[in-house]
Amino acid sequence: MKELVEVIAKALVDHPEEVSVNEKNEGRTIVLELHVAEGDMGKVIGKQGRIAKAIRSVVKAAAAKEDKKVVVDIM
Description:
The chain is of the alpha+beta class.
């Protein structure tokens, strides 16, 4: 899951070298914290949060195959 979020985020931003994803396991739930450059925050969130919602949907679908719950936080 971590790699999936990282690949998607790097494709969206102007500074892909500043993209990092931290993974925290909390039981069956995995929390992924996405960190991007300050100037790229809008590109990852999108208008009215549409891109952020799309990223979360893709990750949720991939996690469903593994019977896990994944939460994506954009920091």
